[in-house]
Amino acid sequence: MHNRYEPPTDPAARVFHRTLGTGDPYHDSPTITTRATGPIVEFPGEARATGLRRLSKLTWRATQLSAVTVVGFATLFARTAPTQAASQVSTAPTTEPSVSASPAGSPTASAGHRRHRTARTTTPGGQPSARPDQPATASSAGSSSSSSSSSPSQAPSSSAPSSASPHSSSPTPTLAPPSSAPAPAPPPSTAPAPRPTVSSTSHAGG
Amino acid sequence: MPTAAMTIGARTFPALGTFATLLVTQPDTLGPAHDLLAAELAAMDMACSRFRPDSELWRVNHARGHPVPVSPLFADALTVALAAAALTDGDVDPTCGRSLARLGYDRDFALARRRSGRLRRRPVPAGGWRRIELNLDRQEVTVPADAMLDLGATAKALAADRAAAAIETAVGGGVLVNLGGDIRVAGDPPEGGWLVGIADDVGFDASTASIEPQQMVLIHDGGLATSSPLGRAWRRDGMDLHHIIVPATGRPAVSCWRTVSVAAASCVGANVASTAAILRGGQAPRWLGGLRLPARLVRHDGSTITVGGWPADAEAE
């Protein structure tokens, strides 16, 4: 334990050390020593004070780093929270019968495999409303196999998913023609026909 | 049983940013039929609206590449959209959402068309429909962070298909659903068929009562749709823009056709084919003819050609 000041023994430190009197074995100059950046007055507690300053600085840096980390995590959670909330909200509708599908060429859906995320859609092959009492569509225009994230070049295909709700129709669009082509309307003078409904590009209506 | 044309019940109301017309051959069923149609439109809007923050599509588009559980209806709508892309070799791409937003169609069209400021960012190509991951087993959808879905090309037609089928099942009789020109009929048609006017020079401000069809046709089954760059068109930065986007460039299509009307087995099929025909330009007649799809194509000078058994215009006969 040092109760008394002792001059530094390291010669390198002596250049910053100010001596106060004669007879000092480490006396180099009776005047204040200087550094390139300017005069520095050295006092007996300088080393400890410097250490304390460094410790304080390190503590401040650590505090800053912690603050940045907290802000970073807060931002990350803020970004991911809506997704998680959406997941929770969207869970409710899944109580309805889920749509199952099978890749083209597979007659039925095979549950329990392909649990990884895949872009499985269905082969074109029927009208969107696939009710049993409706006539089947004429043909399917270009079927293709299922597509996964690992083979994105494959086009989606469709099958006939099961559906229980009358509002739920199988999403199997085709480019099949109608059973009968549009027919020319009779001349307006033949009968008092009602005003036709119009097919045009989408407009505001009213 | 065919029904006399004069007994048709009709109702028109605004829906999905455009109008909805419901015709039924049994007028006493118009009320329940309207309720079914309104419910279907509300459900489709909640699932597939690009502009509603509470829609499923909004959540999917803003999930930053994370999988999002979706309802069966949204899964159906996306399945249809992806199948449409496959059927058209990617011409009708559901990932044009960001392209449309860059061109200023980033809000309800009635609002977007009024904006006149400069476009701050360059057009961007479609995100790529093959990158969309739809897991039907888990009912999850993953959209890459740099892509944005827009189901407007097919969701409205799908709603017409679904609503017509649901109405015919629930109340019987014949039904016609017309959603902004996307038409689907189901059940027994009225005597002679459903009378449909084909209009090819309609702007967005047109009212349903003011439209003068250029041709009248009768349809008995399936769907009929008309696509055109005229309706959803706006102007920004001195450029005339519209909503039919070339996926590869993210810019509006420059087509030799002003309007294309197509009849198909379903409204979705008709809509997809008519939109793709606009994009395919001069190759469209051969493509439509190869599919045996009846279609009427109108050039910018007003001249028309028909394929697939579509009746010729009266003037050309």
Jot down its keywords:
heterodimer, A: 206 residues, mainly alpha, 2 helices, 4 strands, 4% strand, B: 317 residues, alpha+beta, T-fold, 8-stranded antiparallel beta sheet, 3-stranded antiparallel beta sheet, 17 strands, 24% strand, disordered N terminus
Summarize the structure in words.
- The complex is a heterodimer of chains A (206) and B (317).
- With 206 residues, chain A is mainly alpha-helical.
- Chain A has 2 helices and 4 strands.
- In chain A, strands 1-2 form a two-stranded antiparallel sheet.
- Residues 15-36 and 82-169 of chain A have low confidence and may be disordered.
- Chain B has a single domain, classed as T-fold (Roll).
- By secondary structure, chain B is of the alpha+beta class.
- In chain B, 61% of the residues are buried.
- The chains are: A mainly alpha (206), B alpha+beta (317).
Please tell me the total number of domains of chain B.
1
Rg value of chain A: 42 Å
CATH homologous superfamily (4th level) name of chain B: ApbE-like domains
CATH class of chain B: Alpha Beta
What portion of residues of chain A is helical?
A: 10-25%
Computed over alpha carbons, the radius of gyration of chain B is 19 Å
**Percent range for β-strand residues of chain B:** 15-25%
What is the averaged pLDDT score of chain A?
55
The ordered string of helix (H) and strand (E) elements of chain A is HEEHEE
Biggest β-sheet: strands ordered side by side in the sheet of chain A: 1-2
Stretches of chain B where pLDDT falls below 50 for ≥5 residues?
1-5
- Give the uncertain stretches of chain A in residue-range form: 15-36, 82-169
How many H/I helical runs of chain A?
Answer: 2
